[in-house]
Amino acid sequence: MVPTPHPRKWFAGLAALLALLFIMAACTEEVVKEVPVEKEVIKEVVKEVPVEKEVIKEVVKEVPVEKQVTVVATPTPGPTPTPVIRQVLVTPTPLPPTPTPLPTPKIYELGIFEDLTTTNFWAMYGPDGTIWNFYVLGGAHPALYGYSDQRFDWIPGMADGFPTPLKEETIGGKTLWTTEVNIMKGPKWTDGKDITADDFVFTTQTALDLKLTGNWGSVVDPEYLDHAEALGPNKLKVFFKKKPGLAIWQFGLAFMPILPKAYWEPVVKEAKQQATAAEQQKALFAHVPKNQSVAGGFIFKKWEKGAFAESTKNPNFFGTGATITEYANGAYAESKPGVYSFSAYGQPTGEKTLEYKVGPYADSSIHSIYGTQEAAILALKKGEIDFLLNPAGLQRGLQEQLKDQPGLATIENPSNGFRYLSFNFRRPPMDSKPFRHAVATLIDKEFMTNTVLQKVAIPMYTTVPEGNGFWYNPDVPLIGKGLNRGERIAQAVKLLKDAGFIWETEPKMSKDGRFVEVEGKGLKMPDGKPVPEMELLAPSAGYDPLRSTFAIWIERWLNEVGIPVKANLTGFNIIVDRTRGEKLDFDMFILGWGLSLYPDYLEAFFHSRHAEPGDFNAGGYSNPEFDKLADELLAESDLNEARKKVFKMQEFLADDLPYVVLFTTPILESYRSDRLKFPYTETLGGLQNGNGLTTVVAIQ
After folding, report:
1. What DSSP string describes 199-261?
2. CA-wise closest residue to 395 among 460, 450, 455
3. Which end of the chain offers a freer environment for a tag, N or C, measured as fewer CB atoms within 10 Å?
């Protein structure tokens, strides 16, 4: 999931907070053209006159003043010739005007270290929902509602005020729940057309008709949403099949990115010519946009694969010039002189905790793609980039390279994400709960984070990070925590034996309990079949040394007890393709999530209805008991009751283990403080969660 930003600033975005993880540069040069000026040119013809074998040449000098000039040619001494006297009218040639120096374009230089996989927003919000795509393409499309900066208040984006309360209606013999939303007047797409309720209706209907998955399936839920209607250009009515909870409406559909109907309608119409929903999706995602209309602060212009992506400033961005203010009393306000004004959550008076004016202040942004973090850090040190975008933040080892570097600042924020190991439940023995418990028991997270990784990471046991305090449950099962190596192996062996697994050679610890004296061999599943050789996919060390290190140690620990696993450290996009593609070709993998604040992602990641290729439940986890809990969360409209349900879901998942949650890290970020000035630097998930705040950062 990536974060949903404040829609009027449209950072990307996340960076909803749907991270639902969204992001953007060509320089415009003034062309100086030489223009011919008509003028009168008088040429003096010089004729040689023979005078007693002496050649006399008349010398004429042009004087750049508008007057008559008498020019006398003086011959070389000798026989005195007849002097030649002429009057010449000289018209001065005007000097070209001194050109006005062109202002130096302000370019926001950002670094990323994984390439894009698409420039199609439908695909990006679906099967290609990688953080790297969101960093570059995010923030291009508005939503009805979003989060405020730092405090994460629920505020209007494209909506003009808050929606009407949900109302039960009987329409055409059906009982539906409805709400109405006014749409702001004024915002436009880059083709000059108004953003209207019809664009919202088109976007929702496309997601429903084509049965789109991924983030689309989370925000446009066909089990709840019936349809939407435009009651006028600036008035919208939404119809739900059953009463929606917070996850479905306020933190779901209300955060949906709105796409321009005028551009995409012909593309969608052509995709619908395909026979099946899967083929229609494929046709839609295959479209390569050219000059598509957007509404964010930047317009995507160019992608050189493996090198960079560039975007230019949107000169007609509606948010430009708006002032955002947050107050200590909890009030929120934003206004644009002569255009609109909005406030909520109290009277906007008293002490201000945040205030800034929306840009963009950069003429363009360039996202340069680096092969490794080390290469990106070197570029940051040299001043080639201003900010490095990294969902995991800066490694402390690399941070040391930047220490005391002139012109650089480093900040630290809590993370709203985690790294995890996932199982493919479609392949035995991963579908066995005792097997998953044995794997989790063998992984010593504290040893890894404290000793191997030198405390740069924080061990985790639940699916909600501690930084998201309201939803975090600290009292989940802590499988394996506090056990030494010998105790871990003994417990793992017992779990497997009790479940019917047997060895030809059972693993045995040394007497001092410090190492495995005899490794396990010939492990067989309860049905008597050998446990197959399994592959553990993980990012390479160049991409993320923390996850690659975890993978190597997990391979070692599992092999010691006879679980045949081989770590395959490979490219991030390769892992995404194998775990989210049509074939679902994997055994286990290690990846990470950037998360939304409202933890409805628990339903999206683990409900059995999301287990199709391209959706979020890549492992194919299916448990009717959990599905029931997840369904109840989607229907819950009371915040405190939703919190209780989220606590139960965390406890359930920490025991059933569709994921072994491994660790999180503080988000460490460095940027060129000699070039950039941010309105704030303290925020959950770091500045990367807002894609580097492209529309509000000031460029020196």
Report:
1. HHHHHHHHHHHTT--THHHHHS-TTTEEEEEEEETTEEEEEESS---TTTTTTTGGGPPP--H
2. 455
3. C
Q: How far apart are CA 208 and CA 225, in angstroms?
A: 9
- Write out the H or E segment, with its range, that includes residue 450: none
Residue-wise over 438-460: b if at least 16 C-beta within 10 A, else e?
Answer: bbbbbbbbebbbeeebeebbbbb
Q: How large is the angle between the packed helices 545-560 and 433-442, nearest 10 degrees?
A: 110
Question: Strand pairing of 225-232 and 174-182?
Answer: unpaired
Say if residues 653 and 602 touch (Cβ distance below 8 Å). yes
Six-digit token pair at 653? 């998942």
Q: How far apart are CA 590 and CA 16, in angstroms?
A: 24
Q: How confident is the model at residue 392 (pLDDT cuts 50, 70, 90)?
A: confident
Strand partners, 230: 236
The runs of H, that is alpha helices, within 304-390 are 373-382
pLDDT at 53: 37
The two three-digit tokens of residue 234, written as one number: 């600036």
| 489 neighbors 438 (Cβ within 8 angstroms) | no
Average pLDDT over residues 57-69: 37
- Residue identified by tokens 């097997």 is 435
Distances in Å between the alpha carbon of 480 and those of 451, 505, 509? 17, 24, 17
Neighbours of 377 (CB within 10 A): 23
Q: Pairing between strand 534-539 and 588-594?
A: parallel
pLDDT computed for residue 94 by the predictor: 66
Q: Of the given ranges (254-258, 579-583, 641-645), which has the lowest mean pLDDT?
A: 579-583
For the stretch 656-681, pLDDT in tens is 999 999 999 999 999 999 999 999 99
H helix or E strand, kind and range, residue 90 = none
Pinpoint the alpha helices (H) of 454-503.
485-498
Which two three-digit tokens encode residue 697? 């950062």
Could you give the CA distance from residue 276 to residue 282 in angstroms, rounded to a whole number? 10
DSSP secondary structure letters along 8-76: TT---S---TTB-------PPPPPP----------PPPP--EEETTEEE-------SSSSEEEEEPPPP
Residue with tokens 């099946």: 276
First-to-final CA distance of the chain? 33
The 10s digit of each residue's pLDDT in 349-374 is: 999 999 999 999 999 999 999 988 88
Crossing angle between the packed helical segments 485-498 and 433-442, to the nearest 10 degrees: 170
Q: Count the neighbouring beta carbons within 10 Å of the beta carbon of residue 281.
A: 22
Question: Does the predicted TM-score (pTM) go above 0.70?
Answer: yes
Q: Please, which residues have CB within 8 angstroms of residue 266's CB and are 6 or more apart in sequence?
A: none
Residue in the structure block whose two tokens are 């009030």? 331
* Closest to 8 (Cα-Cα) out of 328, 350, 258: 258
